[in-house]
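Open question from group meeting: does this chain pack into something compact, or does most of it stay loose? Before anyone orders reagents, we agreed to write out a predicted structure and look at it together. Recording both the input and the output here so the notebook holds the full record.
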Amino acid sequence: MAHWRHTFKSPRFFMFDARVAIFLIAFLLHIRGWTLLVLITVLGAFYAVERRGYDFKSALRAIRVYFAGPVRPPLTDDKLTRPKDYDRRPLF
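Structure tokens returned:
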């Protein structure tokens, strides 16, 4: 039985994250050149991510931060309230 401290670790498939198994199964079910190329590309991407010290979830988070930019407003434009002018003028 595994020690309790190993329960939070991500599952591994040989030396890669277990999410690679999805692409491996897809390749084994549909053996073509392009699926082999996709599998090798995904394996290379996972290897490069892990060499930089990220796990898969934090790498996706870093990519999202890269595309979102340094400043993210707390509310989107459609949720911001604009000042209202009721055009209140005296009647007479």
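Observations to bring back to the group:
The mean pLDDT is 83.
The two ends are 87 Å apart (CA to CA).
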